[in-house]
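thread: overnight batch results

M.L. [08:02]
morning all. the overnight job finished for the chain we discussed friday. pasting input first so we're all looking at the same thing
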Amino acid sequence: MTAETLHAILLRRTRFSETSLIVSWFSREQGKLKTVAKGALRSKSSFAGKLDLFFQCELSISWSQRTELHFLREVVLIEPFAGIRSDYLNTLAAGYFLELVEETTEPEHPEPAIYELLVRAFTYLGGKPVTIRAVRFFEQELAKNLGLESKTPNQVADHLLHSLQRARTTRAKLLTALD
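M.L. [08:03]
and the structure it wrote out:
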């Protein structure tokens, strides 16, 4: 098992056992990946307070040779994007952005431009209220990075949301609230 340091944003956490979590990340260097955080739910865990949605972290992971589930060794919190949580619509928008990135990217396929787009979006949401324009901008930029730049904004949204019922519902809820 080789260890590597990555910069990543937490996409999702799932309970793995009584004391461990499976944590999904989107990293600059490796794209979307999953890790096991052994003992993360113990009260004296070194992961305590560092594994929450939208957190940008520096990770030390050990690569598994047999499975797509790698081992999380260490986490250093870089940016919690705390401002996102202060407004329901900003939290909803950030969740929608994560859903889009999670559903439109391949596992362990580096997409540094999409990672930077996500960081810029979270920085924006951390300081300003979300707008329809911001949501559409994120969708357009994501589409460009996925090779869909020739499409209109509505075609982009349709393509991104084609089979993503949950994301479609989140987007509708968000845009209705912003109107």
